[in-house]
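User: Hi! I'm working on a homework problem where we have to compare a predicted structure to a textbook description. Could you give me the structure for the chain below?
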Amino acid sequence: MYCVIVGCGMVGSRVATMLTRNGDSVAVVDQKSGAFNKLPSEFDGITVHGCGFDESILKRAGIDQADVFAALTENDNVNIIASAVAKTIFKVKRVITRVYNPDREKTFRVLGLEIVSPTILSAEQVYSRFIMGENSANLYINQDFEIMEHVYEPIGKGETVGDLEDNNDLRIIAIIRKHKMALAKNNYKLIKGDRIITAINIHSIHTSSRVFGTDKGV
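Assistant: Happy to help. Predicted structure tokens:
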């Protein structure tokens, strides 16, 4: 997966580091060259100094090949402009946008952007959004665990809740099928399209995500 991140602050640098550790390709853009000092020495992506909504800067970051774009600066105006450029001009399939002002969320969503809130935990929230994809919703998150709802994609025949939980650092809490919710039981058989509410260990989410068929890219 190729990712372009605008904003190398506390959140952007952490997300970029998590993604490179997971083996993804990452380009980080920031107007302040000193911001890249937040990246650890192990970071093996690329850094681009410049404006996050400048088309020439974004091209240098490789946006033409981006699977996912994230605007994670501390400025809502920069985030919405950069996201709009990525979505409308470069046709990036998935665009994740950090929003400080909740009154602006509706505007962001109308543009087809995925929204994350500016909490100290948003690095983990953004990272899980990169890994789990757009068909997921964050219900709760802390430094170690996330509770999320997402669409089940079969990776085998006749899978049960127990099959998915075995050897994965997750617990399935409930299943939603045809608008009805049922508490998950070990022998409950899953079908394509079920919405699963799951508690997942943040630190092993890239491994657990394979259970839901999301390891093949965006």
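For your comparison, note the following. Helices lie at 10-21, 55-60, 76-89, 105-110, 122-132, 161-165, 205-208. The chain has a mean pLDDT of 82. Good luck with the assignment!
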